[in-house]
Amino acid sequence: MTKNSGIEGLEAEVSTRLGHFIKRAEQSLITEKSAALREFGLTVPQYSALLALSYTPGASGAQLARVCVVTPQTMATVLSNLAAKNLIERQISDVHQKVLTTRLTRTGRTLLKRADAKARAVEERLSAEFSEDERELLRSLLERSIKALES
């Protein structure tokens, strides 16, 4: 703890912590994506699940949770909400009776295509702030950060 107190002390403290800036960047990105996806009635986790399913049709909820970096419980809720909107269909796996596989419906594919254009525009706006070398350096530094924290 520092000797400074109050807002000035807090601001001085958090200005030295990388985690604070990483969290602010993540929150800004999620806020912008949420706004872009609102017109489609999607949350960011729902969009992420639809995008993952477009590349991995037949994935299980557990597989999607890992790819989308959410808990299995959160993914179960996401998938339930997507199924209620007729954006996905779930079937019992041919391999294991307790596993449900998930696929996009035609409606889900159509909505994803439109939503992805808006979400991609947010990421492109972010990318445009950096040169190609800076983007590669940022990716590399973030990857190192992840490895350092996961080891």
Describe the protein.
This protein has helices at residues 6-14, 18-38, 44-55, 61-68, 72-84, 106-127, 132-150, and strands at residues 59-60, 88-92, 100-104. With 151 residues, the protein is mostly helical. The protein has a single domain, classed as Arc Repressor Mutant, subunit A. A 3-stranded antiparallel sheet has the order 1-3-2. Strand 2 (88-92) and strand 3 form a beta hairpin. Helix 3 crosses helix 6. The longest helix has 22 residues, at 106-127. It is elongated.
Compact summary:
The protein is mainly α. The chain has seven helices and three strands. The protein has one domain: Winged helix-like DNA-binding domain superfamily/Winged helix DNA-binding domain (Arc Repressor Mutant, subunit A), CATH 1.10.10.10.
Q: Averaging pLDDT over every residue, what do you get?
A: 93
Instruction: Please state the overall shape, judged from the principal axes of the Cα atoms.
Output: elongated
Distance between the termini: 26 Å
Number of helices, counting only DSSP H or I runs of 4 residues or more: 7
Strands of the widest sheet, in order across it, are 1-3-2
Any idea what the radius of gyration is?
Answer: 19 Å
Output the helix-strand order.
HHHEHHEEHH
Topology, please?
Layout: H1 6-14, H2 18-38, H3 44-55, E1 59-60, H4 61-68, H5 72-84, E2 88-92, E3 100-104, H6 106-127, H7 132-150
Features of this protein?
Arc Repressor Mutant, subunit A; single chain; elongated; three-stranded antiparallel beta sheet
